[in-house]
Structure to design on (254 residues):
């Protein structure tokens, strides 16, 4: 097998941050010896999350077993996911913002046609529905647990309490047409074909789209992690994976 040097588009501060958290985890569990140091394990986790490297590639690159690579990655992901903000914390942060932007991107997964609960009719592909809340500056504040792709955005939002929480805190939300009928403080564009809308409705929809464009850019930033472009892991691990990516995103140096 050939081995070659590579690079990961993350700063050394990410490595130090995750290595520190893993070192604390090892002290809490009383770990006495590991094949890799906390810093090397952090690098394994970052390579998996950012570049989507498989366990086999990580095993070869770091001279560890595949099972060890899998265990190291799962431990690192769980450590990061535990640091992700809750919905209540995100709404508390949002109270100091002018508004927030909820969105429900579909994270593609590898499933066959028989897996109907994971098939999104809107996107015409298999995936997992993850609700995301973004601030006016394009910074992701919160991500929800993953639901099957067949779940509609408005149902997912109500399931996670995304409609009620901002309304209680009087936080304005600018959402897309998938949240039609949400009520509360959620604003959605006018429905209907463009040619059938009045000039005033078209102007409102243009302004609405400009506001929501910030949220779309934020999701593109999250998907810089190649792992999220096509998830091949068990669907039970997707929630912790997305939350781990969010934790790294929130700890990006400015």
């Amino acid at each position: 097998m050939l081995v070659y040097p590579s690079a990961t588009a993350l700063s050394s501060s990410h490595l130090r941050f995750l290595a520190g958290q893993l070192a604390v985890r090892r002290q809490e569990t009383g770990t006495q010896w590991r094949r890799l140091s906390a810093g090397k394990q952090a690098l394994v986790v970052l390579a998996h999350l950012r570049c989507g490297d498989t366990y086999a590639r990580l095993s070869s690159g770091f001279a560890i077993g595949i099972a060890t690579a899998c265990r190291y990655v799962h431990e690192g992901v769980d450590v990061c996911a535990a640091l992700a903000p809750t919905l209540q914390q995100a709404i508390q942060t949002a109270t100091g913002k002018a508004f927030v932007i909820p969105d429900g991107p579909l994270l593609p997964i590898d499933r066959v046609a028989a897996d109907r609960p994971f098939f999104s009719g809107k996107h015409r592909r298999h995936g997992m529905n993850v609700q995301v809340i973004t601030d006016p500056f394009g910074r992701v504040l919160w991500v929800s647990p993953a639901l099957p792709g067949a779940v509609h955005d408005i149902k997912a939002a109500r399931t996670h309490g995304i409609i009620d929480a901002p309304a209680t805190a009087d936080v304005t939300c600018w959402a897309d047409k998938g949240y039609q009928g949400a009520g509360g403080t959620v604003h959605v564009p006018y429905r209907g074909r463009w040619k059938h809308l009045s000039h005033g409705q078209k102007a409102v929809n243009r302004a609405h789209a400009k506001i929501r464009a910030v949220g779309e850019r934020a999701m593109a930033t999250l998907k810089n992690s190649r792992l999220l472009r096509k998830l091949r892991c068990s669907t039970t691990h997707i929630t912790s994976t997305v939350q781990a990516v969010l934790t790294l995103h929130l700890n990006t140096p400015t």
